[in-house]
Amino acid sequence: MISVLRNDINPVFHRHGYSELQIKIGMAEGENIVIQYGQDKSSQIDLIGYVMNVTVKITSITLPNRISVGGTIYTLLHPKTQSDFEKVSLENMNWKYIDKHNEKPYKVYTTKYTSQ
Q1: Where are the domains positioned within the chain?
Q2: Beta strands at 33-37 and 24-27: parallel, antiparallel or unpaired
Q3: Rounded CA gap, 51 and 61, in Å?
Q4: Residues of 43-72 as b/e, b for ≥16 C-beta within 10 angstroms?
Q5: Domain made up of 2-111: CATH architecture
Q6: pTM (global) more than 0.70
Q7: Secondary structure of residue 23 in the 3-state scheme
Q8: Angstrom distance (rounded) from CA 81 to CA 85
Q9: Distance CA 76, CA 41 (A)
Q10: Most exposed: 18, 29, 57, 107, by fewest CB within 10 Å?
Q11: pLDDT tens, 45-93?
């Protein structure tokens, strides 16, 4: 997604005098609750739960044009892909999220900065 934005979309925006777009991607894994308001196909659907809260927080601390993942997702990545990430220091943040697998503070990893 970041590559498409950087290489395909933003050059078009730039040619037409528009500001470039930036995105942040945050991911965590786990169970959520799906709530549907109403019973027809156009009814609104919400996802709620602890994982959604963690994901929103991860995304909020992610720098533009980077991807951040929770510790569980990070451990599932191939070692070559893991090398594209670095651990986020959460010490100076009001980070209260706990990893359900080990009851320790939830770790976050983010992609390393690249100028391309």
Answers
A1: 2-111
A2: unpaired
A3: 15
A4: eeeeeeeebeebbebbbeebeebbbbbbbb
A5: 2-Layer Sandwich (3.30)
A6: yes
A7: coil
A8: 7
A9: 35
A10: 18
A11: 888 888 899 999 999 999 999 999 999 999 999 999 999 999 999 988 8
